[in-house]
Amino acid sequence: MHLAKLKEFRQAAYQYLCRAHDATFELTDAILLTRHVHCLADLSLCPVFRRRWSSIYQALQDCRPARRKLMQIYIKHIPKDIRPILAIDHTSWPRPDAVTLQERTIEHQATDIPGNRPITLGQGYSTIAWVPQSEGSWALPLRHERITSGESPIDKAVWQLQQVSQYLPSRPIVLLDSEYGCAPFVLKTAGIQADKLMRLRSNLCLWGAPPPYSGKGCPRKHGEKFKLNDANTWEEPTETIEIDAPKLGRLRISLWPDKHFQAATNIQMQLIRVERLKNQSGHFAKPL
């Protein structure tokens, strides 16, 4: 049964590779079966790649896969009895020496050298993936596309989430890094049927719900200010629990409802603060 299902999936994916589909399909198998690759020519040594090594470059140059149809095949195999968990991330590929490469952009890249700017020249890619397991690093990319010079990582992520969510069997939970924890992303995804769990930078400010209208003047849009890095501006959390996680130790989780960004007044969020009270070495960790 499982073998027949795998054959059906592979045949369907093969049909949507369009040009150079034979070489591209064998190249995909070679990537899956080759543990260490130092250059593209190494993949030609894999037994499943039955062509000359130059066919690898021809496949990459000529192949134009039907990305939307391939995405629909992947989503078809997502279980329907659980809520899908998606992850979106922006990755930079540094190409500082490729002076003739088209569409190079300024990309963020962390550096360990004090005083160096955390930037590089290269290309940015946006990936939206389905995360099927609670542990481990395996994930299934549903769309992986380059961010052009006319796009921003947020715009690309919003477009990818729109493309994926309309085909999912149920409303997904989307995990996002702090790059997306901002008012523009919240506003642009307000109409998408998805719940978003995003990190926030510690120097941000949120605002509470406004008080009832007093009957005089313009109604207030914001309540009390909530600075994430200033505990003096915090009110008491609505709910606080402490749990013992097997790998992280003792955790304290606090919840504040009805918060919003200043530029996204009508979109209410719940703020969650996760404190790792003590790690395995006995030292306190930075709250999340």
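Next protein, fold it too.
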Amino acid sequence: MDTEAELSELDERDRSPRPDEGPGERPRSSRWRRRRPYAVVAVVCCTVVMLLSAYVVQPFQIPSASMENTLRPGDRVLVNKLAYRFGDEPRRGDVVVFDGTGSFVQEAPSENPVTGLLREAGAALGLVEPAGTEYIKRVVGIGGDRVTCCDERGRIEVNGRAVDESYLYPGDAPSRVPFDVVVPEGRLWVMGDHRSDSRDSRDFLGAPGGGTVPVDRVIGRADWIGWPLGRLTSVDRPAEFDRIPEPDGGHG
């Protein structure tokens, strides 16, 4: 009998709360096991989003008014990073995001490594404005094209054909800066849709590359406005660019 009483007393002790557990509390290891699946799911989701942003489609926050009214400050566009990944190249009329280092910006600004990493993560999710070296503009001329401004009606010409730019900001002239350039092979002549409020190829005529941007610096093509929801729409390539003849060199 004494043995049975002792066993019963030990069993009661095993079931009693430990000093660091209040009455009715679960062991800490049990609480962690319950939360761990949610933490794993969160990490997996973040990893998938970052991979998609790095290689497939990236949200890009519009930082300025240079592309109005097509794109407005604060819009988030979805940049298709596969658009030029398999042999295709930017076409006249495409809206592209590119790294302006070496063309629009001669040197990338210095930045605290930790701050830079956090900013890159936020920019990859479209939560903050992109780096100061990243731009979004419309392709007006590709390699081999002769782009001039302006004809007798004030229009830009590409390979001798005037372009009726219906997407320009209301009241803007196609350009108040005259120019006559032949775009080198492998480079692009890019301009903002809000010509009076855009720093673009015209502003860097005297810089290395003559204001043109290397094709290999293009990050992707802006295909959709994804936010705000009231502006959800595709970013279309204007049909007027289909009527431009090929340059004399036969480049397509």
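About the second fold: The longest helix spans residues 28-55.
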